[in-house]
Design brief:
The termini are far apart. By secondary structure, the protein is an alpha/beta fold. The strands form two sheets. A four-stranded mixed sheet has the order 1-4-3-2, with helices on one face. A four-stranded mixed sheet has the order 5-8-7-6, with helices on one face. Strand 7 and strand 8 form a beta hairpin. The chain is globular and about 50 Å long. The protein contains three helices and eight strands; from the N terminus they run H-E-H-E-E-E-E-H-E-E-E.
Length: 135
């Protein structure tokens, strides 16, 4: 079996979104990600947009999949938990998310019985994102 630490790497996480423009504004706005690449597939009636904090050859990305003919919001299911993002200032980012019309679902502060500062926000489709302060 190959050495997984040397030969394997997480590439991306894919989530389906109802409104691609709204999702891109959220991830590239208050979340501070960059648009890495975008691809429209007319025959398949979908668009893929990859966002992240660095180039895909070194960093994990989020793949936003927009299906053109999806009319209803997606059922997020009970198996998916959340994405986690390390940030330098959880309080400041929550303020930016709120100012941009986003939703903070767990106010910033230390974890129960600990000192690490965290918060939870939701993207426009309701996906939860844990913000973890990393100075």
């Amino acid at each position: 079996m190959p050495d997984t630490a040397a030969n394997y790497r997480m590439l991306h996480t894919m989530i389906r979104v109802k409104d691609l423009d709204k999702s891109l504004a959220f991830y590239t706005g208050p979340m501070g990600m960059k648009m890495l690449r975008k691809r429209e597939v007319p025959d398949g009636k979908y668009t893929l947009a990859f966002v992240g904090y660095g180039e895909e050859n070194e960093h994990c990305a989020v793949e936003l999949t927009y299906n053109w003919d999806q009319e209803k919001p997606y059922d997020l299911g009970s198996g998916f938990g959340h994405l986690a993002v390390g940030v330098p200032d959880v309080y400041g980012l929550c303020e930016q998310v709120t100012k941009s019309g986003g939703k903070v679902t767990r106010a910033p502060g230390p974890v129960k019985f600990g000192t690490t500062v965290i918060a939870f926000v939701e993207d426009p489709d309701g996906y939860k994102i844990e913000l973890i302060e990393r100075k």
